[in-house]
Amino acid sequence: MFILVPMKSVPLFLLLFLSIHLSWITNAQDKYLYDVEQLSKKSEKEISSLLKKTTRKISSGKADVMDYYNNGLIKLLYLKDSSGGLIDFNKAIELDKSSLGPYIGRSRIREGRKDYKGALQDLNSALRIDSNNAVVYNNRGYLNQLQGNYEAAIVDYNKSIFFETRKTDEITTTYVNKAEALKLLYRMDEAEEVYNKIVKLFPENVKSYYERGDFYKERGNFDAALKDYDKAVEVSKNDPAMLIERAKFKDDFINDDKGAIEDCDAAIVKDPKNARFHYIRARPFYDMENFEEVVKSCGNALLYDSTLYDAYVLRANAYDFLGKSELAKKDYERAISIAPKNDRAYAEYITFYNKAKDYKNSIVVLKKFLESGIPIDQQNLKAYYVFLAELYFKIEDIPSGCEVCKKAEAMGSTEAEVLRVMNCQ
Questions:
Q1: Residue 368 is assigned to a structural domain of this protein
Q2: Tell me: the pLDDT tens digits for 284-319?
Q3: If you compute the radius of gyration of the chain from its CA atoms, what whole number of angstroms results?
Q4: Inter-CA distances, 237 with 209, 311, 425, Å
Q5: Domain-embedded: residue 147
Q6: Residues 403 and 347 both lie in one domain
């Protein structure tokens, strides 16, 4: 999900309506800015009404540039209809080539489709309209960053920061983008300076501490990371999403299983029907080998979201340790049916059968994985074929094992050649 970061402070109801991620958690889409000034004072009901109104005007042929722009923006950010948004932005630009917003919206769609050349043309067109626009410089910087032009990205981020005279909290997005470009250039000291500046400029912004905490975590400075996550939780007034992020850090990086569970419990009190929170709670119990509690927490997660793939896999693993093989099989199968292009359940399921020395079923699952269409690079594919051949040899299906060895050999696997010589004479 691409996060919308407005140029001005936006009412909470609008942020929710446009599906903004409000947990201050950075992801791959927390980099782009939009000019949503025209929508910033409207309620959910008003925006819904606006969408109906603009749609009617477009259908009647009486729409103006702002009708098409608003329609395109709502389609892009709320309805997730990039094709519809593109049509509306194109029409808005056709009606008025001096309107800034449609170029920004269209550039986002083109960037999402990896039409970087077209996206750059749109942003350059926007800068010809307003050469001092902080939003456009940020977005062009991010576009450069996507293409590996990190130095050019930093230049644009600096311009964005310079022209953003209002210095609102939203500018943290540009600072974070700049810091990440510096990291990609291995200029870690400079990146740290940027994160420190964010905290100094916006000490009441949760994202300031969370982003710097992530930086310290990546650098292996876990004490500093924990201090920043603690501060983020404090500033957010124990926001449940921030509590969960701290729980994940405690579980994954500092082996504080008890602390992770406490954070999860506090988050669940505030948001008891959040399936992912219950799943995250199960993870430290798994580390502690409290498999009954894993089953319970995963069960709660699946009660609120029956499609939560990770919860099925983790519960299947717990069932395996509890000796409940049939229940484990059902969960592995369910996980694969939900996410057939995700390799984790296949790997866990194969391990499950291997532990039981049920090599025939290991072969069935491995072949299903190889036929699933999941992208596999050649090096890994050779290894999988060797593994498959070994399984065939374990059940004394020599012809099948030899055939698979030949496939791996044709790809350049010397290991498969040795295996064939040992078993296929």
A1: no
A2: 999 999 999 999 999 999 999 999 999 999 999 999
A3: 26
A4: 13, 28, 70
A5: no
A6: no
